[in-house]
Amino acid sequence: MTPLTAPPSEIETAAARDQLLRLRASLEQVLFGQEEVVESVVLGLVARGHLLLEGLPGLGKTQLAKALAAALGLDGRRVQFTPDLLPGDITGGPILEETPAGRRLVFHRGPVFANLVLADEINRASPKTQSALLEAMQERRVTVMGETHPLPEPFFVIATQNPIELEGTYPLPEAQVDRFLFKIDVPRPSAAVLERIVLHRSLGTDPEVPAVMTRDELLALSALATRIHIPKPVAGYIARLVHATQPGESAASAGVKYGAGPRAALALAAASRARALMEGRVHIAAEDVRAVAPAVLRHRLVLDYAAHIEGRTPGSVIAALLAEVPGTAGALPKTLADAKR
Do 239 and 188 belong together in one domain? Predict the structure, then answer.
């Protein structure tokens, strides 16, 4: 989506912030003790990005996605990925039917034709089936037997995956991983959170989630986010940060086999705009970039074998990058006019 030229007003950003905080608060009543995860999910949707949630089974990843569809009033579909799942089970396909004109093949839509598609345990399906989502995620359309079918607006994929160390998992292809705006790690809850879950949840029942926002309101917020101004110094910071992920371009990138590319830079900008909107600001700042960088970059860095042996992870590399690459100098601008200077 091309950013609009007219910047938002402070009244618009303040109203948007109130809406986003209500949505975040509603989801926090579903996924206890996971405030950072919930905030990342909200930011990802405002930025019109797909989300990859990784964590052990039973941590509430699926429940969060279902609650999100209910809170936004969206058409949500769940696809359980298994080793025997076929691409046509996701996209749909032609079925021979009797029509007034005789027998003919009629396309029947699969579960991908929804506003929010929950790809549950996506890495338990074969790579061929995983790739069935590639065109849908990038182009927001599906092509079957030469015919192209547009997907509904808005369209999001929230995929959950188990750690690759578990049995029966297939690593996602790099080309597909790169199409996710965020990779969000879902940690195990603390003892205090487990106590809260025991007191407020029952096995086999889903919590009721009231609708706090409509589809049109979500689209309006996404459009408003594209109008958030990016000061040139902050754009330079995004460029330097992404460039520093390449092997040999920084001390922190030692052990990185493949770094992030242009899509990562665009993802950082979009996610930073969404965060600035949630903060009620009309421009993004370096602090926004630093806040979203781990979720944007962790799945776009491929480490070599030696780095794995040394115990390095994409997370540790990103932390070193944020410490090494200088941000923007000076105080945070207070107005749009200051931000454009």
Answer: no
